[in-house]
Amino acid sequence: MKFRFLLLLLFVSFHSYSQIKFEKGYFIDSENQKTECLIKDSDWRNNPLKFKYKLGETDEVKEEDISSVTEFCIYNGAKYVRANVKIDRSSQELSSLSNKRNPEYVEEQLFLRVVEEGAATLYSYRDPGISKLFYKVNNLPIEQLVYKEYYTADGFIATNAMFRQQLFLNVNCNKSISANALENISYKEKELEKYFQKYNECMGDTIPKQVKKKRDLFNLRITPGFSYSTFSLKDNFYKIDFDKKLTFRVGLQTEFVLPFYKNKWSVIFEPTYQYFNSKGKNSSNDLGKIKYSCIEFPIGIRHYFFLSEKLKLFVNGLFITNMTLKFNSSLVTGNEPMGYYSFKNLEAKDSFGLGAGIENNRISAEIRYCPQRSLTNSKTYTTNFSRLSLLIGFKVF
Questions:
Q1: Is residue 393 within 8 Å of residue 46, measured between CB atoms?
Q2: Fewest CB atoms less than 10 Å from the CB: which of 197, 365, 375, 386?
């Protein structure tokens, strides 16, 4: 309980000192006035309605919203433009699909993110539950590219893929692409971005894209370290505390960085080998012994707090499944005071782990606590296995 409170305190402290990054950018107001400034880069997963900025590093933070800004941009980052558009907000969840084939438009004022810009411009819009693409050709109004799944009268799922016809009629350089050729194109941002790039190149009207910083979305680390482990065994009358041990552990940690919120969130998976050999004693007798070695498969979520480009703090929570690889593990009790009992195959229960650490470039250090894990299915005995570990991570790539 004390450790959880300490971890919570560390989390709040890390959050207080984590760096809020303001990047160079600009915004254009409704009077067509352009303001160079520093914009808080929140790496929006969903399209925003407002943003925070400051005119200089030491100036106060201010806020603008869609009612007063027609465009804002973070250099080498995202660009958003205000648009009054018709959008179909029909659900994209299979359990809630509409039974209408045609789009069910509502008129809204939105910030659309610019994906590809030129003679034809591609925009994206994301909100919880929906993801839509829009386009604009020359000086024509911005329109939604139509793709809609819906239920037919007999309960089947059908698709309205009118976006292919829109591309054929309006984004088709010299009509060089046939309708049949467009049948294979998918309603995916990356695929349509390439299509619009080729169209703009063919039309000789491209706007150079800002070069975005490369992101490391996958990391692999070797994580050797030491664990200080405790184990106890008890029944309704007695309790045996086994000798505490400092043992070696090693893991191979894979990390998948989520591609939004400025690389602050990631999913980690860390197969880990550990062992624990100990005896339970009183003043004169051995009361039991345990031999436990296994490979565990913890999976969890990590959150980073950036202090600089290379230095960052992190906290993570892990779920440790009961699916482990065990190597000749056993638990034996002595004759006194519990009598004799032997477990040939220990069965670890589901557990969890909490950790906090620091990373500098390719090296990291973490303290991790895994509390109160049961190692048997016995109805006679209760077992508690816990450990506090120090991990040193070495990033392979």
A1: no
A2: 365
Cα Rg of the chain (Å, integer): 29
Query: Is residue 364 domain-shared with residue 247, that is, in the same domain?
Result: yes
Q: Where does residue 265 fall: left (phi above 0), alpha (psi -120 to 50 degrees), or beta otherwise?
A: beta
113 confidence band (pLDDT: 50, 70, 90):
very high
Domain shared by 227 and 370, yes or no: yes
Same domain, 184 and 228: no
**Residue 273: strand, helix, or coil:** strand
237 and 301 housed in the same domain: yes
Residues 121, 257 share a domain: no
Of the chain, the percentage scoring pLDDT greater than 90 comes to 53
Both tokens of residue 286? 């051995």
Residue type for 220, please?
L
pTM for this prediction: 0.65
Six-digit token string for 146? 């139509």
| Measured torsion, CA atoms of residues 138, 144, 148, 152, in degrees rounded to the nearest 10 | -100
Burial class of 167 by CB neighbour count within 10 A (0 to 12, 13 to 18, 19+): buried
Domain containing 40 equals 21-203
| 15 within domain boundaries | no
Amino acid at 161: A
- pLDDT above 60 (res 142): yes
Residue 209 resides in a domain: no
Of 139, 171, 203, which residue is a domain's last? 203
> Within this chain, do residues 161 and 292 fall inside the same structural domain, yes or no?
no
The answer to whether position 211 is within a domain reads no
pLDDT tens by residue, 144-183: 999 999 999 898 999 999 999 999 999 998 887 887 888 8
The tens digit of pLDDT for each residue in 288-337 reads: 788 888 888 999 999 998 887 788 999 999 998 877 777 777 777 665 55
DSSP single-letter state for residue 381:
-
213 within domain boundaries: no
